[in-house]
Amino acid sequence: MLALTKVSAAPAREAAPAREAARAREAAAGSRAGAARAPGEVRGSVGGGDSYVVGVDFGTLSARALVVRVSDGAEVGTAVSEYRHGVIDRSLAGHGELPPDWALQDPADYTAALGVVIPAALREAGVDPGQVIGIATDFTASTCMPVLADGTPLCQLPGLAARPHAYPKLWKHHAAQPHADLINAVAHERGEKWINRYGGKISSEWQFAKALQVLDEDAEMYQRADRWIEAADWIIWQLCGTETRNACTAGYKGIYQDGSYPSREYLAALDPRFAGFADGKLAHPISPLGARAGGLTSAAAALTGLPEGIAVAIGNVDAHVTVPAAGPVAPGKMVAIMGTSTCHVMNGTALAEVPGMCGVVDGGIVAGLWGYEAGQSGVGDIFAWFTANGVPGEFAEQARRRGVPLPQLLDEKAAAEPPGASGLIALDWENGNRSVLVDAGLSGAIVGLTLATTAPEIYRALLEATAFGTRLIIETFKASGVPVTELAVAGGLTKSAPIMQIYADVTRRPLSVIGSAQGPALGSAIHAAVAAGAYPDVPAAAQVMGRIETDVYRPDAARADVYDELYAEYVRLHDYFGRGANQVMYRLRAIRDRALAGRGGPAGEAR
Amino acid sequence: MLALTKVSAAPAREAAPAREAARAREAAAGSRAGAARAPGEVRGSVGGGDSYVVGVDFGTLSARALVVRVSDGAEVGTAVSEYRHGVIDRSLAGHGELPPDWALQDPADYTAALGVVIPAALREAGVDPGQVIGIATDFTASTCMPVLADGTPLCQLPGLAARPHAYPKLWKHHAAQPHADLINAVAHERGEKWINRYGGKISSEWQFAKALQVLDEDAEMYQRADRWIEAADWIIWQLCGTETRNACTAGYKGIYQDGSYPSREYLAALDPRFAGFADGKLAHPISPLGARAGGLTSAAAALTGLPEGIAVAIGNVDAHVTVPAAGPVAPGKMVAIMGTSTCHVMNGTALAEVPGMCGVVDGGIVAGLWGYEAGQSGVGDIFAWFTANGVPGEFAEQARRRGVPLPQLLDEKAAAEPPGASGLIALDWENGNRSVLVDAGLSGAIVGLTLATTAPEIYRALLEATAFGTRLIIETFKASGVPVTELAVAGGLTKSAPIMQIYADVTRRPLSVIGSAQGPALGSAIHAAVAAGAYPDVPAAAQVMGRIETDVYRPDAARADVYDELYAEYVRLHDYFGRGANQVMYRLRAIRDRALAGRGGPAGEAR
Fold first, then answer.
1. pLDDT in tens, A233-267
2. Which CA distances in Å does B518 have to B51, B64, B130, B239, B525?
3. Are A124 and A196 in contact (CB under 8 A)?
4. Mutation target among A588, A589, A599 for the B interface, most CBs of B within 10 A
5. How many CB pairs under 8 A join A and B?
6. Number of C-alpha atoms within 13 angstroms, CB side, residue A522?
7. Do A566 and B455 touch (CB under 8 A)?
8. Taking CB atoms and an 8 Å cutoff, what residues of chain A touch B589?
9. Is this complex's ipTM strictly greater than 0.90?
């Protein structure tokens, strides 16, 4: 999952020339007001008769509300609030320390956030709550939880506050890997058709692995859970009082394909006690994105200050909801949401099996189209890792003297050299590989180091490696009959012009840049407008309310030629290390695990 | 060439426990006084009737004299002096800027140093010059120069002070690579037998490539040079007034094999004007190491304060001269002189062709034995490069707070983790590969990086990579019928106990450590004693005057087991990148060279 606004290797910077050019173009074309606003600007003329919608983006550490004008998508007010308990990954009150790789959240933080950010955003906007006609939300995923039949989270029941398995498991809870391994092994053994829609692998981050972990480790909690639900759907339940299930999380995180979940027989093969999991705890009609889930309950109205009864849209996921925020929705338009990791989402008119994608889901992004999702598990977090661990103090000192963030200094130094000048090539697998190879056991590599190699050169090689990774995903889609016709970018990394230029040069494609700094929240607002009936469907609303600047970065032919050569080297190393010719990365991991397991005594000394 | 004392990744540190243990052992055994002195200690009782010798080590940036007692090798006084002109690699007075990869020296600095360090060392020793019976020197190599028939360097002739090609070319002058390439191509074309004694490649650092460059670029200088001579031999000429040529540089740097230089026909094939190079400018009887070159001239006596007529030994090379300083000379005892690079020198009783060694020379280390030389072109300088370019400021800050050098901190952090715990493996080719593969076009690589990887872990992986490189050299010798029976270490890196322990564990061998911190100068002193007739030969003198502590570091079986696994990964990557399966390193270098050649215009910007 993305943590879109949380950790970014590229702190806030403005791509001013590009933006001004876009403004000039739009002014010349007499286009709609507000469309050329800078990312991050939130202001509009709030007319008396205008209608508004609220989008709420639930991230990893905080929730953000955005008030948006229905007529043109103008962002008129926003507010953010951090969750009181943040990510619960060290210890749980009353229980003590959590094992490694655990990551829980407290659902009370979600509802509390609603009560803070919506009123605050309305105040900032100066909008009368009576003008708001709908609300929609998006969430990290798969963040899923055990609840009673009425939606009460188990962790809120008397006596269960200290039971770790009673809490929502955040997307980045990675302790269910053995369960995911079992899920995959049995699926392949039985030749389950759905497994290939997920690149051959179900992630430990998703619903089934996490539920199976609960059954395995705390069968009582599993039994007491009437329902197993995504936080994306649970929050809607809190707003409209009705359980719903959205097509996006059901498809991408819940293995819902061709109208059904995995069979009882398959589930029984995982664990006989798990046979009824889908029928009993998941099953529920699946709702298309942008549909109306219900009306805002009086309790939710009291909490948020919004009018009772306004439209509440079906739930959604932060990455996927960003697509309509990036303007016109069209098959072949890939939206890359670039943050700590990158999520590539794209609509297609037909079903194709693209090797190593995260998933393909009917209506998973927009109703009526096949939604494709691919991803790179490490992007901004690789840059952040290197910035923190591989850069000598002199550069931090330079950045300090110039009063710029260190990543900006590194970006600039990277951009100052022509492609290929470092003699380096890297593989971007420091956090594993999520698409094409789908292998968390892979790791990063750098080749071409010399005594003249500098830290900014390695940094540049890492930037380029992630761009090569994106190109390989695009080429894999193309080779599978799903051509990418437009490449649009969103997320925190779009603030770095040097990184964007590298992506344009490496992919040989002009980059369209989303016109909003709050892509997910704007996307949610668009869904709210559709749910409220202001637009017939999401594409129609996106056409008006979404914002994209096309051709912001254009590939340079000479640089692209050099990158073609480097990309060929990337692919060669990618295949050598990633497709079995040399399984050194797995062996190193196994050696490491044994070494760490055996640690305790001090390393031996000379005599 | 080694720059033994110049740049070390491991600044002065004492291996105190090992030393004390050695002291205790020697005390128990009633062994000779002085033998257990700490490296770096220079003091002894200067008795009235004792004889002394002086060894002078000419390094890259300075010369060091060491006064040594003949009877037991006690080091009683030392002095160092930096060359006034250091390395002339940027610009030459009167000429202006030098091209890249040039490195010259001023021979007047060498003679000036003699006049400073010898009197100073004698003063420190409190030794009456009349007690000194001989002097010997060792030099960097191949540092070679054009001179007149009387030994006058061309650069000292009127009107030639501004001619770059009139100066000595320091070992690390790398601008003759095209000439080395030609030398190698023609040698293989013609099937010259000698080429295989040099691992199939003559280095651009050696005599022939550098002389061919002079001919190619400044034919007048080439013609005016009556002789082309190693600085190692030229300095002897200055001391005793007679031209001599030592077996070590003639063999390792001058392609002198089986009693002759390369043939006129071969040289003519390089350039018709070069046909007479060996006959005309090199040819001279070759003297065995330890032989008397002559008596100290009155001029040299006046310069140095030593008695006229005392024995001057034949010239020698800093690495090779270190072998007798490390105690008993025996076939199969490999001495690894570990500094910025590592030079592995070893005697064998028979000629064998070991793939990828630097050279095998009859009497190249000790008269009567075949001298084998291998080397790693980057060791301490890889650690120094990473320390300067890859370590974030927090570690420098920690080191500052603790008052220890950063490399020591990194060594300690490296030693604190068990082998394999980092999950990393590296190739130690940041400065190319000098032995086994003999390929300067290779570069470094690191595999296994994750978001949890830290700078000290990468540092450790680089330490280990150089140890794997040494193990591969040892195994290659063994496979070629030249088994290594003892591994002795010398040079600046021996001061780091963590590094030494890694080497013991990786090679599964106990390490013997030289008992002198001035290995080359002590080795020279030993040759001086032999030249003066105090001992019948170098092995006999080494037995008494050399110093070694055996079993200072012993392999730990459990760590060695893990290293066996990692070494297998090293060899796999070594062969993949180094033996042609993926020539990515050469292609990256070519791409880099094109990129840098085309630089000039600014890199393109977004629109």
1. 999 999 999 999 999 999 999 999 999 999 999 99
2. 20, 9, 23, 22, 11
3. no
4. A588
5. 237
6. 33
7. no
8. 423, 448
9. no
Q: Tell me if chain A has a CB within 8 Å of the CB of B385.
A: yes
CB B215 within 8 A of CB B224: no
User: Any alpha helices (H) in A494-607, and if so which ranges?
Assistant: 497-507, 519-531, 538-545, 557-578, 584-597
Please give the mean pLDDT across all residues of chain A: 91
Tokens of A94: 């009353």
List the one residue out of B102, B120, B139, B108 whose CA is nearest residue B4. Answer: B139
Token digits of residue B287: 């003297």
CB contact B24 to A (< 8 Å): no
**Which among A195, A192, A287, A207 is positioned nearest to A247, based on CA atoms?**
A287
Whether A604 and chain B come into contact, CB under 8 Å, resolves to: yes
The conformational region for residue A420 under phi > 0 = left, psi -120 to 50 = alpha, else beta, is left
Quickly count: other Cβ atoms within 10 Å of residue A432's Cβ. 19
- The Cα A208–Cα A210 span in angstroms is 5
Report DSSP state, residue B303: H
CB atoms within 10 A of CB B533: 11
Report the relative pairing of strands B286-287 and B370-376 from DSSP bridges.
Answer: unpaired
Distance (Å, whole) CA A1 – CA A115: 25
Q: Which pairs with CB-CB distance under 8 Å and at least 24 residues apart come from B590-594?
A: B591/A420, B591/A423, B591/A562, B591/A565, B591/A566, B592/A420, B592/A421, B592/A422, B592/A423, B592/A448, B594/A420, B594/A562
DSSP conformational letter for A168: P
CB contact under 8 A, A606 and B17: yes
Cβ proximity of B172 and B103 under 8 Å: yes
Strands A311-313 and A132-139: parallel
Q: Output DSSP code: residue A193.
A: G
Decide: B314 and B302 in contact? Cβ < 8 Å: no
Distance from CA of B127 to the nearest CA of A (A): 38
Q: Name residues of chain A where pLDDT drops below 70.
A: 1-48, 599-607
Q: Which residues pair with A552 in a beta bridge?
A: none
For B81, the token pair is 């002096």
Q: Which of residues 341-380 of B touch A (CB under 8 A)?
A: 378
Within an 8 Å CB–CB cutoff, is residue A496 touching chain B?
A: no
Residue A599 sits at the chain B interface (C-beta within 8 Å): yes
Q: Per the confidence metrics, is the pTM higher than 0.95?
A: no
A284-300: pLDDT as tens digits: 999 999 999 999 999 99
Comparing B134 with B15, which gets the higher pLDDT? B134
Contact state of B455 with A389 under an 8 Å Cβ cutoff: yes
- CB-CB contact of A65 with A56 (8 Å): yes
List chain A residues with CB under 8 Å of B584.
Answer: 425, 447-448, 569, 572-573
Coil, strand or helix at B565: helix
Are B595 and A562 inside 8 Å of each other by CB? yes
Candidates B17, B573, B603; nearest CB to A584: B573
Average of per-residue pLDDT across B498-506: 98
CB < 8 Å to B466, chain A? none
All residues of chain B having their beta carbon less than 8 Å from the beta carbon of residue A577 are 447
